[in-house]
Every structure is written in structure tokens, then in C-alpha cells.
Design goal:
Blueprint: H1 13-25, E1 30-38, H2 40-53, H3 59-73, E2 80-81, E3 87-88, E4 95-103, E5 106-114, H4 122-133, H5 142-148, H6 152-162, H7 166-173, E6 176-182, E7 201-210, E8 217-226, H8 232-247
Parallel strand pairs: 4-6, 6-7
Antiparallel strand pairs: 1-8, 2-3, 4-5, 7-8
Helix pairs in contact: 1-5, 3-4, 3-8
């Protein structure tokens, strides 16, 4: 009898959610823009603040804050469209934020919705991130876990209905996406990453990277927008404004 050279694992609800998110992302007509920013001055500012106070915001908190400022300026970026072809323009931008946690020695994906990101200070955002770092909970409420156990075809019908209901969609999934890949390596040409999501607008940052010759820190950013909500001009302007907020960031 041949030796069994494989083993099986039962998919957790969060694994199914990731697969479903990829399915939903394939249904959204995303347009993309890439950017890069020098964040050396921000790292120096954060280090000095932590040295003086013992704690302080992280680079990811700063990126989220600057992202929120862009969304505050351009509220149509995080609008959602209904089945009646109405655009719902919201006062608050709710950000879907995926992150990794360790459960039983294994890294698994978890998520949190940061409500009203565009209204939060960098310190309020850092407090949320601190809670995220200290938890081992995947962030999925019980009703979502039960939903993930339904047959795939039933889930897809549910998603089709939900995607045309802006208020419910925003409440369950948020209106925008934010992801971060932490890299701190010496490299001349920083790496870009692309996010596949089903939100009105998305930002994925990677870095910071250390330039081996100048010793400066750089981060790359991938911006993506639902083309039924935003056009190329709005996307490009958002990328430019994000860099502006990074370049001019100061701690209060």
C-alpha cells in the first residue's frame, strides 16, 4: 500500500472569509495607482517622541491617519452604490483592516473595522492598533462564523444582495480597505504589492525599506478604487494627497 504523503486541514471560518473576499474582489472593477514616499523624517519624529514619553504612535498609525485625512477631503472616494444606481456619500469612512495573529503557534488572518477613520487622531488610531496587537481573537463575530459554514452557493447569493445595500454593506464590511506589509530591509528598489478587495477604495502600504547608500527610509503604496465610484483623476489625486499628508505630518 503506498505511503500517504499528505495531510488534511479543515478550513476555519476566517479562511473561508478570505476566499470569499477574493471572489468578491473579482467582481469589482478596480483601477490602480502606485506611489512611494520618503518617511525618514516621520521615523525620526516617532523615535524622539517615544524616547521622551516612553510610548507613541507607530508608522502604521501614521499611514492610517494620513489615509483618513485623504478620505475626509474626498468623501466620494468612500461612497457606495445601490442597486437603484444611487451613490451613498457617507460622512464617516469605515476601514476594513486585516492583520495577522498567532493561534497555537500558527499565524492566521484576522480583521477589524476601524469606524470613522477620517475623524480619528493618530493617537486614537494607535490605541486601536495596540488592542489589535494584544488580542488572539480573529475578530469574526459569531453570526459571520455561522454564515461561513453555509454552502458556497448560498453565501454567494447573500453577497450579491448585500453588495447592493450600501448601509448594510458598510456596517458589515466597511467602506474602504487598508492593509500593511511590514518590511524593514536594506534595498535600493522597494517592493510594491497589490491588494484584491471589494471596497470603494483601498490602500496597501509596504515598508519601510532602508536605502543602503543614503540610509533613508521609503514606503511604497498601492491605491485602488472601484471604477464605478471613482475615476482615474480622483484616484491619482488621492495618491498625491496621501504623499502630501505624509510629507507634512507632525505630531500634535
Amino acid at each position: 500500500m503506498p505511503t500517504k504523503k499528505y495531510f488534511t486541514e479543515k478550513l476555519k471560518p476566517v479562511d473561508i472569509m478570505v476566499a470569499d473576499s477574493a471572489y468578491l474582489g473579482s467582481k469589482v472593477n478596480l483601477i490602480h495607482a502606485l506611489g512611494k514616499a520618503d518617511v525618514t523624517h516621520i521615523k525620526k519624529m516617532l523615535d524622539e517622541y517615544r524616547a521622551a514619553n516612553g510610548h507613541g504612535p507607530s508608522m502604521i498609525a501614521v499611514c492610517l491617519y494620513c489615509y483618513g485625512q485623504v478620505l475626509q477631503e474626498q468623501k466620494r472616494l468612500h461612497a457606495l452604490k445601490s442597486w437603484r444606481n444611487l451613490r451613498y456619500v457617507f460622512e464617516d469612512a469605515d476601514a476594513f483592516f486585516p492583520y495577522e495573529i498567532e493561534v497555537n503557534g500558527k499565524k492566521v488572518l484576522a480583521s477589524k473595522i476601524i469606524r470613522a477613520l477620517n475623524k480619528k487622531t493618530v493617537f486614537e488610531i494607535e490605541a486601536i492598533l495596540s488592542d489589535v496587537r494584544s488580542t488572539s481573537d480573529d475578530g469574526l463575530p459569531s453570526y459571520k462564523k455561522h454564515f461561513m459554514k453555509l454552502p458556497k452557493w448560498i453565501r454567494q447569493i447573500g453577497y450579491s444582495i448585500l453588495m447592493s445595500m450600501p448601509l448594510q454593506r458598510k456596517d458589515i464590511f466597511g467602506s474602504v480597505y487598508f492593509g500593511a506589509v511590514k518590511k524593514h530591509i536594506s534595498i535600493e528598489n522597494p517592493t510594491y504589492a497589490f491588494a484584491n478587495h471589494f471596497h470603494s477604495f483601498g490602500l496597501l502600504v509596504v515598508g519601510p525599506f532602508v536605502h543602503p547608500e543614503t540610509n533613508t527610509l521609503h514606503m511604497t503604496a498601492h491605491f485602488s478604487a472601484d471604477h464605478t465610484i471613482s475615476n482615474g483623476l480622483g484616484l491619482t489625486n488621492a495618491a498625491v494627497r496621501f504623499k502630501y499628508f505624509l510629507d507634512n505630518f507632525k505630531l500634535p
